[in-house]
Amino acid sequence: MRPETLDEKLWDELASASGEDLVSIFVPTHRRGREVSQDHILLKNELSAVSTRLEELGWKPRERSKRLSSVEALLEDREFWEHQDLGLAIYLGEDGSFRAVALPSPVSAASHVLGVYLVRQLVRALDKLEVPVLALTRDEAGLFTVTARRARPITADLPTYGDVNWFVDRETQRQQHPGGGTQNRHGHEPSLREDEDLARFIREVDSALEDLDLGEPLIVLGDDNLVARYTEVTGREIVSPENSGFSTQLSVGLVGELSRSSVLDLERRRFESAKQLAEEQIAVGMGTTKIQEAVAAAFTGRISDVLIDVDADPIWGRIDSRTLESEIHEDQRPGDVELLDRLVAWSRRHGASLSIGTGDPESPFMAVFRY
To answer: What is the CATH number of domain 285-371?
Structure first.
């Protein structure tokens, strides 16, 4: 089998699951290299830790063996380990069924047995910034979507410069000069005619993009002259990194490499905007860095934005389902939940925007209220 890629449906299933002794396992993995053959050892170690925890909870040897057998089978599944990303999350239900999710970012090896699944580490895989990229030269035109880590092509019927301008009849634009030379009928220089052809090409490409609902900003890569004219001709908001010209044939890997700095800059700007909003709202009482207050607000849908450090140490505690009051414990106790995890799960369930990182060095999160 192969691990799954996280989507909204799977997130909803995992974030809303509840029961007794649900198992969440996280291990770092590798896409390639010698380390791939060692990745399963980390899972084996975490399964051993889970077995010990289940024993402490009263599970008998035969029950533990039956419960863990489906995941233990992955240890010998060569195909499974050959199709990993940088991290792996495994969620094991009470009946022995499990979901294995490939994560695009490294995680620390850990395992937990709780009444809910831990989903905070999944935020990077779900709330990543995807930006459309138009790769444009006179010979090639391609459309892609990129994140800070990878690119993928989008099927689109885009014209080339030659497709658009092959039909232009230059003889209708010129008249033969008596001396045998040629001159534009209206006095246009060849460079101006070329500029008109360039604008025509850009308009045709942009027209082909209109029905795709790509959003903005759009990253444009390629010929410097084409990139420079794109905003002028179309009025679109575009981003173009320095040195975006192609010296080799267009490829997905090249697009990802050239776009990465622009995506990272857009992520930084998006986070700084969210941070500024959170600081302003917290200052006037419309936000909080207090976990008890934030968890109660998240459960009732009052939170609109959360800045979260997904790698922060867990905050263990218990929430009163009737009053929504919570108490924090220095160490995990039976029946506890991880409060930062519930903040993320409940906030996102109610449509809150999540940003990875925190602007407050004293707190692993910042939350903004809707009202």
So the answer is: 3.30.1330.30
Whole-Å CA distances, 135 to 199, 221, 223, 237: 16, 5, 9, 15
Pick the CATH number of 1-126 from 1.20.1530, 3.30.200, 3.30.960, 3.60.21: 3.30.960
Which residue, among 143, 101, 132, has the nearest Cα to 118 in the 3D structure? 101
Any idea what DSSP says for residue 247? S
| pLDDT tens column, 183-201 | 444 444 556 777 888 888 8
The pTM assigned to this predicted structure is 0.81
Name the CATH topology of 131-268: Nucleotidyltransferase; domain 5 (3.30.420)
Output the CA angle 299-304-307, nearest 5 degrees. 95
For 304-370, the DSSP string reads EEEEE-TTSPP-EEEE-TTT--EEEESS--TT-EEHHHHHHHHHHHTT-EEEES-S-TT-SEEEEE-
The tokens 């209708």 sit on which residue? 172
